[in-house]
Amino acid sequence: MNGVELALRTLDQGERHLTGELADLAERHRAEHEIHHVAADLATWSEEHVERLREAAARHDLDLDTPQDAHFAAFGTSHPATLATLPDPGLLLLRDLREVHLAATRNSLHWEMLAQVAQASKDTALLSLASFCHPRTLRQMRWTNTMIKNLSPQVLAAL
């Protein structure tokens, strides 16, 4: 496995995970209209990132659905979800926002790594992919960070 393959596999897994986290956030918090609609919109960005990653992988003769090798498993990005039963809807919302933020942060780091390997290997298509997707991931992080800052005082002070 080379660095490009490692970066593409890691990002594919990370973006699929983030899509799920955002979709879960939108579904669990339907009553919070801003949360629901923005999370759903941001999930479509990650879905598009997955499609673009799949296209890039195909250009590199890489099937992202094939089993990963030991290098990828050691590098892995999966973190077991800890879905605790929280009685307070505000605490649940903060937990969900935190999980989305952490998933986006991991992806941001991996987009940066892909950009670096693309520059090193002079792969303009991969650099273009990272240049398109990474700013969107940063926007996902800014949104979750803003929501956490806005909601934390109310939720935590009420405990």
List keywords for this structure.
159 residues, mainly alpha, 79% helix
Q: Outline of this structure?
A:
The chain is mainly α. The protein is 79% helix and 0% strand.
Beta-strand level of the residues, as a percent range? Answer: under 5%
Rg over CA atoms = 17 Å
Q: What's the N-to-C terminus distance?
A: 49 Å
Silhouette: elongated
The number of helical elements comes to: 5
Average pLDDT value? 88
From N to C, what is the helix and strand string?
Answer: HHHHH
Percent range of helical residues? over 70%
Unreliable runs: 76-83
Number of strands: 0
Overall structural class, as computed from helix and strand content, comes to mainly alpha
Describe the protein in words.
Helices cover 79% and strands 0% of the residues. It has helices at 3-28, 33-59, 70-75, 89-120, 124-157. With 159 residues, the chain is mainly α. Helix 1 packs antiparallel against helix 4 (89-120) and helix 4 runs antiparallel to helix 5. It is built from 5 helices and no strands.
